[in-house]
Write a sequence for this structure.
């Protein structure tokens, strides 16, 4: 097999997310030609997709040293620099890629995203609007433009872009269909979202994630977001999660770890800590110094890949968190955390029972939920986003029913959404020592 054929095989496997085959093919190419810049660039891309940004950067720098005019390597390099928030350098890499290959849609789309991340939203809109002329069917360009308009509170323009994403990409050829479908009703445009989802489900009735979205759009309440929906949504979101969350001033991990520190001011080290719904590991960054052993559990393989790239956790498990808690030996955890994950549950009774099982007597769970604060008397409510909000009384009732004591409940701002503050409940519950 020629080098080119091997490279093509690798790229095909890479596109199908068969990473093991892809890396084997790229390695085979590099064993014949250690300086093959395309293979190096693809290895860099693969490392970045696994959250190993420092290694990716090193490989891509080397690929660009050998061939500085490879637009694909430049785009991958820009992407890694962007994830490291080195926006000026990323912008230079994209601009050079655009000069070398003006037909490289990703370079245009990402240079717009880069400007947006530097806070140069108007410049980003100019670049992306120009790119839209050249690539009217680029869902990525339209998606990035929509996010810029949202940043400026231009909700109508954002909705126009999102609708165009759905028109040109439908469901199947759209990188973030679930996000577009949940955003449009919030922006006052539910019709096209329902139509595209309805058509998709008529072709793929077995799609459980899509079925969950349909329930959301139809206002049918379910006990929690389905595993299939969580997996698909967060696998899609994993690579941009940290960047997007930083932009909306996401506070949950910091709030949780600050509360742990306030409750344990004596620099306690916890023997066995579990981060529930650990995502890309944002809690892990702050928890690591407090834990002898730090584990994470999450349903999304994509999010776990990013977490594993941070090298913070002693163990990462792919799985559903309530089932995971119940599978642990009784009384084995010294601390559990759960940041911005219970918003995918309606009733919290099963969760609290599972936490009570896994916590040691005297051990604590610290978590956030979105605060349901209006006059109603429903204990929790499913929102148009597919998330749930909870009343304080439900936290207290479900904890008490599971035999847990409420140590404290606080009322912080968690983040912004469409320019509005999202209010949360930050709570700590404890398994009483008397139940030992
Ligand atoms: C909004 S993210 C928060 C991630 C992380 N805790 C943080 O604060 O950055 C929610 C995470 O919870 C995970 N998740 C949601 N429901 C879950 C469940 N029932 N079991 C395990 N993981 C779940 C998702 O896959 C996602 O990674």
């Amino acid at each position: 097999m020629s080098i080119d054929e091997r490279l093509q095989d690798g790229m095909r496997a890479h596109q199908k997310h068969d990473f093991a085959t892809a890396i084997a093919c790229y390695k085979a190419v590099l064993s014949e030609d250690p300086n093959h810049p395309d293979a190096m660039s693809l290895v860099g891309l693969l490392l970045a997709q696994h959250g190993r940004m420092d290694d990716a950067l090193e490989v891509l720098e080397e690929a660009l040293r050998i061939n500085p005019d490879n637009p694909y390597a430049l785009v991958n390099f820009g992407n890694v620099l962007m994830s490291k928030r080195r926006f000026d350098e990323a912008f230079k890499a994209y601009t050079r890629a655009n000069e070398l290959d003006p037909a490289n849609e990703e370079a245009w789309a990402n240079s717009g995203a880069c400007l947006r991340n530097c806070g140069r939203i108007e410049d980003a809109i100019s670049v992306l609007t120009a790119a839209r002329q050249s690539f009217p069917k680029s869902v990525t360009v339209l998606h990035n433009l929509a996010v810029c308009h949202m940043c400026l509170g231009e909700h109508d323009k954002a909705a126009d872009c999102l609708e165009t994403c759905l028109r040109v990409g439908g469901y199947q050829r759209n990188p973030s269909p679930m996000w577009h479908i949940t955003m449009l009703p919030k922006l006052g445009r539910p019709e096209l979202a329902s139509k595209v989802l309805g058509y998709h489900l008529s072709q793929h009735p077995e799609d459980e994630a899509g079925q969950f979205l349909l329930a959301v759009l139809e206002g049918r309440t379910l006990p929690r977001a389905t595993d299939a929906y969580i997996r698909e949504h967060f696998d899609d979101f994993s690579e941009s999660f940290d960047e997007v969350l930083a932009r909306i001033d996401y506070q949950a991990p910091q709030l949780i770890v600050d509360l742990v520190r306030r409750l344990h001011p004596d620099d306690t080290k916890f023997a066995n800590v579990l981060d529930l719904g650990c995502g890309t590991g944002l809690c892990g960054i702050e928890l690591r110094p407090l834990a002898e052993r730090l584990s994470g559990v999450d349903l999304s393989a994509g999010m776990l890949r990013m977490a594993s790239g941070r090298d913070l956790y002693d163990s990462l498990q792919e799985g559903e968190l309530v089932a995971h808690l119940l599978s642990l030996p009784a009384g084995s955890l010294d601390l559990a955390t759960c940041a911005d994950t219970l918003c995918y549950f309606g009733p919290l009774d099963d969760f609290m029972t599972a936490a009570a099982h896994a916590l040691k007597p005297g051990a604590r769970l610290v978590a956030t939920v979105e605060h349901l604060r209006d006059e109603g008397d429903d204990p929790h409510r499913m929102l148009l986003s597919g998330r749930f909000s909870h009343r304080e009384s439900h936290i207290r009732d479900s904890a008490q029913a599971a035999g847990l004591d409420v140590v404290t409940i606080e009322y912080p701002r968690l983040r912004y959404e469409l320019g509005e503050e999202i209010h949360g409940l930050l709570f700590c519950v404890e398994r009483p020592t008397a139940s030992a």
In short: Residues 242-435 form a domain with the Rossmann fold fold (CATH 3.40.50.150). The first strand starts at residue 270 and ends at 276. The chain has a mean pLDDT of 91. Residues 230, 234, 252-253, 277-279, 282-283, 297-300, 303, 320-321, 339-341, 344 surround S-adenosylmethionine (CB under 6 Å).
